[in-house]
């Protein structure tokens, strides 16, 4: 006997872009929280809670005024940054909070924070009762333009980034640009790195825009930063919806250019380098390899290099030179870790000219050596 099962589950969610999510009498909240009598629990990144002291009060005031929309539960503060993805105690507290307050699959968690808090709370909410609905309010450049609008959650385990994780589309996402103003330069740049990543492999015009706007940060050009976030989020969302593989069933990760080494570099530094800071080193390694393989011209390579320099990215870190006992560069281990994470055979996303991509089946130890040597030389110029 054989029963053939086939069914499709449709997902859809809205991503709002706003200067103030409570404007127009909280129209965005009214649109999202349409159900009656849901339980609503807020988890907030400690970094956001410290800088935006009124935000929790505003949310609780909205639910107080709209009591029929949900039973609002006191917010839980989650330590911000990569530590929450590594810290079991924090993760336990998140799970305990959901249990103590009896949240079920008709409840909502509202997650306010950077990519790390969104990943951590998102992961625990997604495995609690097999999935509690989540409304994400990303508060960093990276999470607004990339992670927060996507479908992945995860925590770090066995010293491996995102070892445990799920594919869980959010119920809704609110990108409120006000949060960006309180970020430090390193956290803004971390997000710009992901924007460069997607531009190099998907959108040449956007890459030109990024390369031209390196002074946006120094000049506090909010308009340019907002355009960068919204366009990058659009490219990201578009890829998930139309790329034919939202839950990455195949062996390619078409958006993960520069990430095979980026993730590994981040772990090797014990997370002292931020995600985007590590990704930008990964981008440089792959750009050098792409140029050597003639996937991009010298001119195209220089355009990316100058573009990154204009934003004052640090394009070197001593960890790149770390070697294993057998003499091999440690970052080369990132290739196998990346392959395992995706499953199947190794497929590395590389630029094919600018604004387009192709897949590469392997990278040699010599190619990695050459790239690291060039990056070191460039740094000492
Ligand atoms: N799920 C995905 O698809 C995906 C994709 C890319 C990256 N990520 C993950 O995202 C994480 C990086 O996220 P990130 O760059 O947002 O950094 P982050 O979450 O590590 O936050 C950085 C710091 O900024 C603070 N912070 C957050 N918002 C703030 C605000 N508005 N004002 C002041 N401080 C604020 C945090 O408390 C933290 O100290 C990594 O763990 C990475 O693996 C996930």
Topology at a glance:
Layout: E1 14-18, H1 23-32, E2 38-45, H2 46-51, H3 55-65, E3 70-78, H4 83-86, H5 88-100, E4 108-113, H6 115-127, E5 133-138, H7 141-145, E6 152-157, E7 160-167, E8 172-176, H8 185-202, H9 204-212, H10 222-242, H11 259-268, H12 275-292, H13 298-310, H14 333-342, E9 348-351, E10 357-360, H15 365-380
Parallel strand pairs: 1-8, 2-3, 2-4, 4-5, 5-8
Antiparallel strand pairs: 6-7, 9-10
What's the short story on this structure?
The protein has 381 residues and is of the alpha/beta class. The chain has 15 helices and 10 strands.
Written description of the protein model:
By secondary structure, the protein is an alpha/beta fold. The chain has helices at 23-32, 46-51, 55-65, 83-86, 88-100, 115-127, 141-145, 185-202, 204-212, 222-242, 259-268, 275-292, 298-310, 333-342, 365-380, and strands at residues 14-18, 38-45, 70-78, 108-113, 133-138, 152-157, 160-167, 172-176, 348-351, 357-360. A hairpin with a 5-residue loop joins strand 9 (348-351) and strand 10. It binds nicotinamide-adenine-dinucleotide. Nicotinamide-adenine-dinucleotide (NAD) is lined by residues 45-48, 51, 80-82, 85, 113-117, 119, 139-140, 142-143, 146-147, 150, 152, 161, 179, 182-183, 187, 190, 275-276.
């Amino acid at each position: 006997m054989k029963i053939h099962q086939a069914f499709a589950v449709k997902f859809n969610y809205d991503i709002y872009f706003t200067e103030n999510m409570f404007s127009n009498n909280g129209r965005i909240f009214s649109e999202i929280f349409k159900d009656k009598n849901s339980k609503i629990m807020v988890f907030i990144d400690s970094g956001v809670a410290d800088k935006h002291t009124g935000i929790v009060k505003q949310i609780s005031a909205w639910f107080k005024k709209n009591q029929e929309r949900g039973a609002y539960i006191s917010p839980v503060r989650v330590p911000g940054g990569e530590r929450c993805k590594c810290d079991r105690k924090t993760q336990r507290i998140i799970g305990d909070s959901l249990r103590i307050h009896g949240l079920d699959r008709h409840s909502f968690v509202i997650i306010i924070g950077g990519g790390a808090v969104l990943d951590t709370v998102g992961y625990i909410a997604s495995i609690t009762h097999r999935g509690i609905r989540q409304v994400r309010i990303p508060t960093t450049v990276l999470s607004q333009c990339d992670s927060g609008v996507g479908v992945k959650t995860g925590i770090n385990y066995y010293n491996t980034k995102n070892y445990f994780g799920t594919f869980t589309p959010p119920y809704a996402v609110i990108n409120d640009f006000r949060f960006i103003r309180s970020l430090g330069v390193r956290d803004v740049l971390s997000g710009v790195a992901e924007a460069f990543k997607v531009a190099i492999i998907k959108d040449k015009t956007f890459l030109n825009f990024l390369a031209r706007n390196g002074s946006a940060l120094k000049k506090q050009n909010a308009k340019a930063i907002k355009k960068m976030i919204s366009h990058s989020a659009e490219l990201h969302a578009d890829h998930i919806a139309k790329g034919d593989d939202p839950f990455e069933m195949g062996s390619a990760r078409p958006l993960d250019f520069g990430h095979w080494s980026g993730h590994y570099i981040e772990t090797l530094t014990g997370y002292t380098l931020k995600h985007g800071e590590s990704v930008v080193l990964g981008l440089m390694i792959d750009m050098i390899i792409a140029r050597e393989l003639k996937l991009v011209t010298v001119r195209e390579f220089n355009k990316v290099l100058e573009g990154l320099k204009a934003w004052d990215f640090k394009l070197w870190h001593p960890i790149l030179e770390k070697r294993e006992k057998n003499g091999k560069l440690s970052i080369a281990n990132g290739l196998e870790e990346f392959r395992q994470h995706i499953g199947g055979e190794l497929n590395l996303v590389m630029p094919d000219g600018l604004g387009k991509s192709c897949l590469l089946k392997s990278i040699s130890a010599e190619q990695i050596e050459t790239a690291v040597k060039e990056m070191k030389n460039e740094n000492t110029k």
